[in-house]
């Protein structure tokens, strides 16, 4: 019978690309990972890895095995949920990943509700780059996580990860009140000649700004690159440029800043390992998060 732990290593290799990355993520040595994969190869009786320069790549048989592994791990998550439901009450740690604006606007109220309903549950919060969420969930570093994408930058599904919609928020263009842009131009193109403040390269917020401007017929002239929205709003107030800002980031907006809604939205979801939706702790945290969505946001069904 194939060992699930070795199957998990093969699945991780398919997602992370290198044995070194798998070893780092799972706190193992590269030689230990290689040895376990070699044992798995002997157990299956077929080649699973082949050399490509200095890297190893999965063979077609290995890719088939990974697809079956996703199903196996999904069923194991479901089995674990059934066992937890057989016990009385919820207790122990549950690890929640989040992005900064949700950590401020949604998570605190959810933690208060959880403490009242399930005092034995120990939520453990970590801010994490959304790009790392799928790997962190699959590796067991997190139990669930708040994630987001923009309707102009949809995120493709990740193997082994399920996402439940939570809420939808409007996106605004933030500009200093004495920076009218081109009054005769409608929509986002009104600010085509202004300097822009956008997020760091490779982030979904950066790509969303670039896509929205592209749809409006121009490429933004980038002056500053900042991720933290409070700093972005302070720079806008200082006349340093204009920026796109989602609703959850609109806390203590400086008086000098004017906001105009755009036909762009950011969607927040609760992500967890496939098969874990009915795990009592995951379900309890998800329910508390749903109840903590600010009332002026559109709640997802």
TrEMBL record:
Signal peptide region: none
Origin superkingdom: Bacteria
Glycosyltransferase recorded as keyword: no
All residue ranges annotated as the HTH lysR-type domain in the record: 2-59
CDD domains: PBP2_LTTR_like_6
Name of a matching Pfam family: HTH_1
Coiled-coil regions, chain positions: none
Cited InterPro entries: LysR_HTH_N, LysR_subst-bd, WH-like_DNA-bd_sf, WH_DNA-bd_sf
Entry keyword set: DNA-binding, Transcription, Transcription regulation
Keyword flag DNA-binding: yes
Protein family (similarity comment): Belongs to the LysR transcriptional regulatory family.
Name of this chain's protein: LysR family transcriptional regulator
Source organism of the structure: Pseudonocardia humida
Taxonomic lineage of the native organism: Bacteria, Bacillati, Actinomycetota, Actinomycetes, Pseudonocardiales
